[in-house]
Amino acid sequence: MLQLQEIQSALREANLSGWLFFDHHARDPLAYRILGLPSDLHATRRWYYFIPAQGEPGGLVHGIESGMLDSLPGAKIKYSSWQMQKEGLGTLLKGCSSVAMQYSPNCAVPYVSFVDAGTVELIRSLGVDVVSSADLVQYFEARWSDQQLEMHLEAGRRVDKVVQAAFQEAGARLARGQHVTEWEIKQFILAAFGQAELFTDHGPIVAVNANASNPHYEPTAEQHLPIQKGDNLLIDLWAKLDKPDAVYYDITWTGVLAEAPPSAVENVFQAVTGSRDAAIARVQQAVSSKDPLAGYQVDDAARDFIKAKGFSEYFIHRTGHSIGRDVHGAGANMDNLETHDTRKIIPRTCFSIEPGIYLPEFGIRSEINMYVGETEAVVTGAIQRQLLRINAG
After folding, report:
1. What is the DSSP letter of 328?
2. What CA–CA distance (Å, rounded) separates 387 from 248?
3. Which of 46, 159, 274, 328 stands 20 to 30 A from 249 (CA)?
4. Do both 68 and 215 map to the same domain?
């Protein structure tokens, strides 16, 4: 449902004239969710919806799809030609100096960059400046309700059990002298998700040795490796309750199919988990002292720890991502590598912290989820403190 008063209050606080939503062929899922539009609308022509900081909102729709925005308040201007479209936009934005759109300068935050450059040029040609809606999107898209937090916590309890069962299953099969592969453990996890009434859109990652050095590796029926005694094993899995409006829980654990890990593996694990804990501490310190904290600053805390251990060139991705109804949500990411994410971490949002070190022979990653409340930040599930030692017989 459209939170009109809340949006207008946020616009006034940001000193913006308004928020201009635009779509064509369902390019911008954020617009549909924030406006409360049905996700199955068939938009073959461009539509615009403008929420001013004060006053009545309004829209611009094509004549052959004139009912596209009927569920939203305000008058709708109809157009058919490109000349009428530009004239209608001028009417819609009359008196505006700056509007927010799903745009990011230099595509610094690609997760909100759904408006094409030509449309930005069109709006600016009307004498209206276009600024990024990234912070607005986070406020109205990434914050969780109390019910969503409870669903996340319950999903976490179930996923935590599944990941432990998956490691034990790999070891038990080897102890029985059976052949076991990455693909088979992936299928074991998916079956366990089904039994636990969990949903995932893809994955999980089950990777041994050098495969674990590919952060987005997934075994397939055609391409996978056997899991053998002495192997390093990484499992990254994410799921949510199979219910409307549920949010994800996303973790990574690592282990060895041996009584004790080699010293080189243990050394990397300690660097990774130390990095993870440094990032957790950075978030908790900022929240407890009520200091503003941006996503890039959390990435710096994790990355600085790994750099001090001499592994900086092997930490090749951001420290974490926003989590929501999609496993990669619309809030701030913990990132100063792939992007310079200046979005502030705000209450009622959740994100992963998942540093990794990826050497040619093996990779180690440790991933937890953090939820930021009004007065504290907490890790929402189990924290891996030592490498799992899996008895493989």
Report:
1. S
2. 24
3. 274
4. no
Q: Which residue has the higher pLDDT, 206 or 38?
A: 206
**Is 335:352 a contact under the CB 8 Å cutoff?**
no
CA separation for the pair 348, 160 (Å, rounded): 22
Alpha-carbon gap, residue 240 to 260, rounded angstroms: 33
Range of the structural domain that residue 174 is part of: 143-389
Instruction: State pLDDT tens for residues 91-117.
Output: 999 999 999 999 999 998 888 999 999
pLDDT digit string, tens, across residues 248-307: 999 999 999 999 999 999 999 999 999 999 999 999 999 999 999 999 999 999 999 999
CA dist., res. 102 & res. 135, Å (int) = 10
86, 119, 141: which is the final residue of a domain? 141
Amino acid at residue number 378? V
User: Does residue 24 sit in the same domain as residue 165?
Assistant: no
Residues 106, 214, single domain; the answer is no
Q: Give the CATH number, domain containing residue 60.
A: 3.40.350.10
Q: What is the distance between the alpha carbons of residues 39 and 28, in angstroms, rounded to a whole number? A: 10
- The pTM (predicted TM-score) of the whole model is 0.92
Same domain assignment for residues 223 and 361? yes
Q: Which residue has the tokens 């669903």?
A: 151
Secondary structure, 3-state, the chain: CCCHHHHHHHHHHCCCCEEEEEECCCCCHHHHHHHCCCCCCCCCCCEEEEEECCCCCEEEEEHHHCCCCCCCCCCEEEECCHHHHHHHHHHHCCCCCEEEECCCHHHCCHHHCCCCHHHHHHHHCCCCEEEECHHHHHHHHHCCCHHHHHHHHHHHHHHHHHHHHHHHHHHHHHHCCCCCEHHHHHHHHHHHHHHCCEECCCCCEEEEHHHHHCCCCCCCCCCCCECCCCCEEEEEEEEEECCCCCCCEEEEEEEECCCCCCHHHHHHHHHHHHHHHHHHHHHHHHHHHCCCCEHHHHHHHHHHHHHHCCCHHHCCCCCECEECCCCCCCCCCECCCCCCCCCECCCCEEEEECCEEECCCCEEECEEEEEECCCCEEECCCCCCCCEECCCC
| Residue 172 φ then ψ, to 5° | -65, -40
